[in-house]
What we know:
Pfam family, one: Glyco_hydro_1
Number of domains: 1
Protein name: Family 1 glycosylhydrolase
CATH architecture: Alpha-Beta Barrel
Family: Belongs to the glycosyl hydrolase 1 family.
CATH class: Alpha Beta
Radius of gyration: 21 Å
Keywords: Glycosidase, Hydrolase
InterPro entries: GH, Glyco_hydro_1
Amino acid sequence: MNTASGKGFPEGFLWGGATSASQVEGGFDQGGKGLSIADLATAGSNVTPRSYTATIEPGRYYPTHKASDMYHRYKEDIKLFAEMGFKCYRMSIAWTRIFPQGEEELPNEAGLKFYDDLLDELLQYGIEPIVTISHFDDPVGLTQQYGEWDNRKFIDACVKYAKVILDRYHHKVKYWLTFNEINTVMYFPMFNGLAVNDESMARVYQMAHNRFVASAQTVIYAHEHYPGLKVGMMLGAAAKYPYSCDPRDVIESMEKEDDIFYFSDVQVRGYYTNKAKGKLRNYNVCLETASDDEQQLKDGKVDFIAFSYYSSNVVKANTDESEVKGNFSSGKKNPYLETSDWGWQIDSRGLRYTLNQLYDRYQVPLMIVENGLGAKDEISRDGAIHDQYRIHYLREHIKEMKTAIETDGVDLIAYTPWGCIDIVSASTGEMSKRYGFIYVDADDNGNGTYDRLKKDSFEWYKQVIASNGEVL
């Protein structure tokens, strides 16, 4: 719980950074690793969406195959994290490094050893790992055999994988997240194998249910075998504002929020609310369930909520006006906000609003495990990267975090800005959409030395951590 006894961030607050395996590691075919769906994603851009191929096609560029090359450079990268003073590092384990096809009888020892070494390197510097079990990188072998997550075979395979890594790393990792941005099954068909429309909603909700069950079984196993572990859910959050005081806009905004809370309600409360059941009825969805699903959801409630926050949305009922982008959803342009190079609305106050929404609703500890500004960084003539725009973005969001703790009493325990080292964008495949404190010398086509270079934000964030958020 929050141990703050006055002003400022609580003692022991976890400052750090965040990445995912498929976006940072590379080495996609090394150490016995199998193919994940992320390995089949081609390069895209801000205007041209990524596509997914059935197999690796000669002549096509797949950005995650090398990514930021952390697979070979993790010691160098972790040393830089330690130099910034990281207290924690949110990462993911690549499922296909452990089970190359998704459900082999025995795990891949080379993959397990890689994460042993990486985790040991973090712990050597006193950096607490926060590990995501599944981060948009399902094994291709499973999808070829079973289709998608609406097949309950995925539950067994995922829980088997989760148990193996819990058994292996429980003495090294205290904090675990089951699924990254679990609610994006509603918005990101590219990560979930289908187009989202009214006809497919039965599949979407079935996929969500099966992930709820897999998460619950994972939580139950962790609590029974390793009582000291904390297992959380991870939500893709975005503040939703009604376009006006027109009741239709207010109700539309509420319904958009409910699409997010549908997921956290089940995982934190341990059951489907009446409103959630109403959504299923509205789409004529009859979930395929097992007899013990209901009890498992109840017994497998998560210990905390981790969430991503980048921007807010404005919601208007019945409109065909142009929309602006966000992390996983879109909305109307807010005239009071600026936008990023990629058109995302910048709204630091929306983070305080979101923190209050989640904490008031659930009263469990919170982690912000993704937040940051994707921008086109340039190396100046002096050889430096002067990313004051990123410093300003993060500074304003940290101010709102502090207010949420001090004024609103929110129990916030960690902050890990996204892409603390430059990584491949999940949505576009670009390297030029940079978030990091550390620059990676690589372009959108994989050309470059991949050398690391500190940005101005590196020294700024180092000071923030050293002062526990007092010096911004």
